Amino acid sequence: MKKFRIHTTAKILLCTVVLSSCSNLLDEEPRNIYTPEYFETEAGVLGGITSMYAHLRYIYGNGYWLNACETGTDEYTYGYAADANFKDMDMSGVGNLTPSSSRADVLWNNAFRNINTANGVIQKGSGVGVSDGIIAEARFFRAFDYFMLAQTFGGVPLDLGSGELQFNTSTVRGSVRNTVPEVYSKVIFPDLLKAVQDLPTGARVTGGVTKTVARLFLAKAYLTYGWWLQNPNGIPTYPQAPRVDLDGHNAQWYFQQAYDIALAGINSPGAYGLQATYYDVNLAQNDRNKEMLLYADHTESSEYYDGSSHSYNTGSSPGNFAAWMTTWDYTFLESSQNPQWTGTSVRSVQREAAQAYGRPWKTMAPTIEAVKNTFANKTQDSRYDGTFVTTFRANWNKAGISNATLYNANGLPVQPGSAILTFLNDDPAQTIDYTNSMYKSNVGAGFLPGRADYVIAPSGISRYAYPNLWKIGTYRTDNGTGLGQPNGGITRPFPIAKFSELYFIAAEAAVKGASGSMTARDLVNVIRSRAGKWRWDNNGNVAKNEDNSAAMTAATPATITVDYILAERSREYYGEGHRWFDLVRTQKWGELAQTYTIAGTAVGDHTPKVYTRNIANYLYLRPIPQSQLDAMEMSATALAAYQNPGY
């Protein structure tokens, strides 16, 4: 049998502040290649563990992986400057997803390297005196990568060239894919169960994996596999296999396990828990908070340890540049030096290394339905305000422009800190004047009487101009009084898993028939209660001490459905890379994302148009990357059989 041989040579980069409390890991030298001998020392095994945390940065924070997880869903479509990377993922008639254009290659090309490293650590670790807890970290990451691969591609190889789950040194360039049940039963479940057993309650290092982290992913894997067994809409799997569990359990057993494990994580949280407000979950100054279970870390203190330029990143891993994709070119906003709007104008909102702004690559735009329907309640529910940038404020003074006052919409004066453009929460009763007959807006925004800020209604959001994604935006502490370095890699950790998701996993399992001490409504209401609590109006830039938790929980339906869970998950995790997986797991992608509305790419186009996506069943699996097929020495027939059907 031919074996798998591609992209399994492990890379090791020193982790950043995620491992700052463990000097023996930080003392490891960077390596390009692992050999079997490397894992025959304690230092080698620890170096392998270090690389497992580092490998997260090659996937999470990568803007093209965010595109693969968000574009084409009900959350995002392609933006003004999108190329085929984004248009093909959207599947709305301007491109087609192919093995060459699918950006799921970001996962494939990095996960197997890490899996091979984990294989080496697990094989050799106990023989060199490394504790079961440290080996459990390797088991966690091996299961984590296989779980992501199985959700994305279906069945994938367990044998990388030297036998199933063995460290590979083979140079044979072939591969055989295992089935989905084999991947779950042979590696995902046993590795995560062992990780829950052996990992500590408290993290070994800052950001290190623990029992709670392992429980979250075990519960999510049980939930996902339960859906896979049930297969309510007859979605095909590949390689073809009966939807029968190898361990003899049915879907309901897995839903109950998901519920029980998630509840165990909630009831025995260790150092984790919910933040008091949603704003505090995503505030950059509050990064690495107790709600963050797993993240791809970065540091501002050193480009070497961060692995990315802090002055000009070109959009490559391991740099964090995901937020650039969701940022429109607000830097074209201008205000006048006189109220008659004659003479010279000034760019009043400059590109700044700040959470609301950053570098605009303008390739992903939110759908109008996401803004108007998903976040329909913008007054009581804090999550819209804690997700998007809807108010763009003057910062020309930070660029050294000396004007104390400029003039904006209606010829009214604005100062640094004033709102220059606002995306309104709701469509106003009064008609917005987008004609700009007297007070021009070079970004095509409109104005309302008496307002100094230009405005765009939710129904006027376009591929050209739209709210930025605030929650994962740029943040630096070294800007001084200026604009800082907005073109450098983002030095914030990118969130992968949060404590709040335990409530959603348990709630979804309850909807699927699991039972226990908390109902689906009880679980959802814990999150909705927190969403109703405000301490700061982010876009208003003012304190807002308001508690709408009673109204939020009272408005929760008596009967929770899968659709309601998905809507709540979107409100909680919008733009974080969960959406495609949520829609595929529940087989709701074709139903919830088939149509969407947005205005066009032209400046000043605010006429919404309905787009229809062609989401065929085969698209529920991403294609095996063309680069993988090109690297294997197999017959044309074998290569065709290796690829997922439809591609």
Summarize the structure.
This protein is an alpha+beta fold and 647 residues long.
Helical fraction: 25-40%
> Could you name the ranges where pLDDT drops below 50 across 5 or more consecutive residues?
1-30
Which structural class is indicated by helix and strand composition? alpha+beta
Mean pLDDT across every amino acid position: 94
Task: Give the spatial strand order of the biggest sheet.
Answer: 7-10-11
As a percent range, the share of strand residues is: 5-15%
Biggest sheet, open or closed, and with what strands and sense?
3 strands, mixed
Shape: globular
Quaternary organization = single chain
Q: Please, how many helices? A: 21
Distance between the termini: 25 Å
| Strand count | 17
Radius of gyration: 25 Å
Protein described:
This protein is an alpha+beta fold and 647 residues long. It is built from 21 helices and 17 strands. It has helices at 23-26, 42-55, 63-70, 84-90, 105-124, 132-153, 180-198, 211-230, 251-267, 278-282, 303-306, 322-325, 368-374, 501-511, 520-531, 549-554, 562-573, 579-585, 589-592, 626-631, 636-642, and strands spanning 76-78, 292-296, 334-336, 345-347, 364-366, 388-389, 391-393, 406-407, 413-414, 419-423, 454-456, 468-469, 494-498, 533-537, 542-547, 595-598, 609-612. The strands form 8 sheets. A 3-stranded mixed beta sheet has the order 7-10-11, with no helix packed on it. β3 and β4 (345-347) form a beta hairpin. α2 runs parallel beside α6 (132-153), α7 runs antiparallel to α8 and α8 (211-230) packs parallel to α14. It is globular and about 75 Å long. Mean pLDDT is 94; it is low at 1-30.
